[in-house]
Fold this protein.
Amino acid sequence: MTQTPAELCAPFPPRYWWLKRIGIAVGCLFVFLLAVRLVWGWEANRRLQSAIDQYAAAGQPVYSRELQAALDAVPEDENAAILLEQAMDAIVYASAAGVPFAEIWGDLDNFEEHRSDAKEIVEENRETLELVNLASAKRRVAWSIRLDNRFKTIDLGNLSEQRSLAKLLVVAIHHFMSEGDQEQALSKVSDLLFLADAGCEHPLLLSNLVGIAINGIGNSTIERIAPRLHVETASRDQIQQLIVELLEEETLNRQYKFAFYGERAYCLDMHATLQEAYASYGQFSTWRGLPIVWGFESFVKPVYTLDTKIMLTAATATANAPAKSTWQEAKDATLSLPLSSFASSLAHPMLQDWFGSTLDTHRKSLQIVYKLKAGRRMAATALAIRLFVVDHGKMPVALEDLVPNYLASVPADPFAVDGASIRYRPNDERPLLYSIGVDGIDDDGQRKVKNNVSFQGDIPFYLAGEPKEAIESDPVSSPNADNRDDKPEDDNGKAYE
């Protein structure tokens, strides 16, 4: 069979020019994607480093090692945590009859039934209580923890022992009140508030929240004992000092900021750990629940870097938020993160998969801080009202009657958008102070209980002693407040689930 000239000139084997063109196109695409990846990665690292440099220039600790250095810099002779840790080690948990003080603490309404056991427990813990009192004179706190890389190893310290020490102090307060030793009782209230402050001096948000819970126990204790205070010269000075301590909020704001510097360092620890995982193992098997091919995770590494930068910005905004005068201003000052849709969660996988629970905790913690501020302000006002009652034999008609002899000014309600003061109902069957709460609606001091745990509505502070039903239903005021799930509320007063 004869061949045509064209066939004679055709290459053998056949050359598929279309395949060559595809190969060239794929090569060009690879070069383009590589260039995009390099530029993208450079820009992501630049943005993250720029944020880090900004925090460092402001004199803020950025990395876990810097937070650790700040703790290590506290001299031993100035460090109250050393004495507090010794006090925790020395705790005697039960009377000779085997009654634990935690049981007494959980049944304060029937304290008289436990009076002999409480007395024995207080005497057995004389050294423990003295160590706490000595610690309160130092005021600088650096707990014995190690922070190196908290994403790998998180040392939560002695949180359980702190709660136990708080319960012991409450039992001691009620013991001294029952014995008529009001000066000792008020001294222990001051020690309890110091223990709460010391617990907040921690670069871990969880530890800070335990300190806030102990603060809440202090407020509840004041709510119980304030109506029974018989003011003498010495105890008047103690009460006035307690009012000053309760209204001083700069320390609380600073401690919360320090905890969020720790949260920020945690984000960087997590980022560094993920980078190590990429270097060691080469890939993760899934991304947002979808299977990924080899090398894809290396291409999207800048996404994780940019998400880390977003988290640093969010943590810094939340750290500064408690300085705002109202809850609404604080909430508006925080960063709203883009996680409302599946598409946005795909674009921000680290925010969704790795930081999701952290974001939720940050949101709730800020609300808890403002609830604590409301509680402390009402506790201080209740003590001022008690001094007024002792001096005048009757309740003040309005809180303005307390100014200037008992309070410098009427404390504002941190949940009131208009800066209004805390509310006061002296003529109710149970006289009370109250904050309008997260929903911003004045419910005349009524609390709306849900499942005996989460609640909405106002935040009351009773002036004739906390009623039993409130203790049983309110997770903030309850003796079990540190062990129950206090679920903050959304803007409509609905508890977060």
Remarks:
- The chain has two domains: 67-257+365-483, 258-356.
- Residues 279-294, 339-346, 468-497 have pLDDT under 50 and may be disordered.
- Residues 456 and 494 are 6 Å apart (CA to CA).
- Residues 67-257+365-483 form one domain.
